[in-house]
Write a structure and sequence with these properties.
Length: 455
């Protein structure tokens, strides 16, 4: 017997996927049965990084993992069509990824049928629910640098390509409308203080040692938490299950929430920040439920959570463009109007290596975009996308890279060519702005990617 759809959003959360999609979907079906649900009752599954979208043996050499630990995993079957994801799966990137494939979809897109990547940073709509994500992990040395990594990656590139950049954090900090669900791979810094940190520090003493030198978690993610106040925040990376609850009083942010905590070790209290660069003030109190989960392979209860989030508080006033449902009664995935405006406003400031010269050109726009610039782009989005009925995310997945062939012999460090992804081109076409990821015919021929489409 399945539960009525009227009970609200039903979701599943996985910490680190590590390429084990078959095990994830099998365990998910079992977990649903224990709740009296069918797998088809789920609205979507989220995987909080280390997804490992490895299409073939060449992608495997673009992953920051010692060679002896590199495994093909299951994704290639879903990419080639040999297997089908049984539930809409939303993913972000972590620090163990086929980074070359994720870079093709910098602004997000379908990694395979029914598996959607939120991009380096992104926000999508599932009915009334706004779901934001930031991929990668924080590294202080890389944070303010451009993305200079283009294939083939050298020893440094394969590590830095998945580091979070300030460009993506700044884009998310421009959001002004409420966010319901936020995803990150590494935890926001200091979030553990809002849960049973004493037990965490006892069972994981190296966490406490890192906290004492102010090196536990991601400070940019804390800036996002402070700004967005999402209802839910899900993470992976630390390979432990941990829950916390951050209470924001009306008109206050993280600095006040941290100061109100009474049982913080004094050594830690001395290093807590007193101010944050951005706070989305609100006249009402709010709370963020934080949940981190382990990697697949640990006991299922540690890496998989299946729950109902209930009805959305604004479900009755859902905007018309987002209400369309599938034949199964689920919401279609949509672009978010505000996020498209931010993407368009910030596009000239994106700093990536030029695909022809592999040199990062100076951006032709300042890196911090004003709210007024976003408002101007919102008007453009309403006129050219919303009114034209173009908010629904199209299923425009095309497999550009060859699927896994067990008989294909690959040199130990051989890497694939760079493929210009049609989904990225389609998004830039929708926004009517230049596509910096485009390869010229000459460059595509040099990399071996010209005219390569595998069906």
């Amino acid at each position: 017997m399945t539960t009525s759809r009227s009970s609200g959003l039903k979701v599943a959360i996985v910490g680190c996927g590590h390429g084990q999609l078959d095990a994830i979907y099998a365990s998910l079906e079992v977990e649903c049965l224990t709740k009296g649900w069918a797998l088809s009752d789920l609205d979507f599954l989220v995987i909080c990084g280390d997804f490992q979208a490895i299409r073939n043996q060449l992608d495997l050499n673009c992953m920051s993992v010692p060679q002896r630990y590199r495994k093909m995993g299951d994704f290639h079957k879903y990419y080639s069509g040999a297997a089908q994801a049984p539930v809409l799966t939303l993913v972000i990137g972590g620090n163990h990824e086929a980074s070359n494939y994720l870079f093709e979809l910098y602004h997000g897109g379908w990694l395979a049928p029914n598996i959607y990547y939120l991009g380096a940073a992104g926000l999508v709509r599932y009915g009334p629910w706004r779901i934001a994500g930031i991929s990668g992990i924080y590294n202080r040395r890389s944070y303010h640098k451009p993305h200079g990594e283009r294939l083939p990656y050298d020893r440094d590139d394969v590590k830095s390509v998945y580091h979070v950049r300030d460009y993506d954090i700044q884009r998310l900090l421009l959001l002004r409308n409420p966010v319901d669900i936020s995803l990150s791979h590494d935890w926001p810094a200091w979030v553990e203080l809002f849960g049973d940190h004493k037990d965490l520090y006892t069972t994981k003493p190296h966490f406490f040692a890192s906290a004492l030198v102010d090196n536990l978690g991601s400070k940019p993610s804390t800036d996002l938490l402070n700004h967005m106040h999402p209802t839910y925040w899900f993470s992976g990376h630390m390979h432990t299950r941990f829950a916390a609850s951050v209470d924001f009083e009306a008109g206050s942010g993280m600095e006040d929430a941290l100061q109100r905590l009474e049982d913080v070790p004094e050594k830690l209290r001395a290093i807590l920040p007193q101010t944050f660069s951005s706070t989305r003030t609100s006249s009402t109190a709010s709370k963020t439920e934080f949940l981190a989960l382990d990697k697949v392979g640990s006991p299922t209860s540690q890496w998989l959570e299946v729950r109902s989030l209930g009805e959305h508080p604004h479900n009755a006033n859902l905007e018309t463009p987002y209400v369309e449902k599938t034949e199964a009664g689920k919401f279609h995935l949509h672009y978010d109007e505000e996020w498209l405006a931010i993407t368009r406003a910030c596009a000239p400031a994106l700093r990536i290596a030029d695909p022809e010269t592999l040199v990062v050109k100076p951006s032709n726009k300042k890196r911090v975009v004003s709210a007024a610039s976003v408002d101007k782009q919102k008007m453009w989005v309403r006129e050219n996308i919303v009114r034209e009925g173009l908010l629904k995310i199209p299923f425009n997945f095309v497999p550009h890279a060859p699927p896994h062939n067990p008989g294909f012999i690959v040199a130990p460090n051989q890497q694939p060519p760079e493929y210009p992804n049609q989904q990225t081109a389609d998004l830039y076409g929708l926004l009517q702005i230049p596509n910096p990821f485009t390869l010229s015919l000459e460059r595509a021929e040099d990399t071996g990617a010209a005219g390569v489409i595998f069906g």
